[in-house]
Amino acid sequence: MAKKSAVNRNNRVKRLIKQYAEKRTALKAIASDDSLPLEERFDARLKLAELPRNSSPVRYRNRCEISGRPRAYYRKLRMSRIALRDLGAAGHIPGLVKSSW
Prior knowledge:
By secondary structure, the protein is mainly α. It has a single domain (4-60, 68-89), classed as Helix Hairpins. It has helices at residues 4-32, 38-50, 81-89, and strands at 73-74, 79-80.
C-alpha cells in the first residue's frame, strides 16, 4: 500500500490539471503560432510560466487504483501487477490464470 500522502498529492495534481487545462492549451497555441508577433508569443510564454507547476500534465503519476502503487502499472487495467495477481488468484478477473513452471 502506497503512502496516503503521495496518493493525495497525486489527486491534487490531477485536480489542478483539469482546472487549468483550457487556459494552458490556449496559451500553448498562442505561444507556438508563428504567424503572431514575437512579443505576443513571449507574453503567452510568460503567462504559461505563471501557472502552477502542478497544473502541467507531465507532473501526474499513474498509480494503481487499488493499492496506489506507482510502479509496474498496467495502463489498460489501471492497476499494478501485484493487485492484478491478487485479483486473478481470487478469481475476480475472468480468463486470467496464474502460471507457474
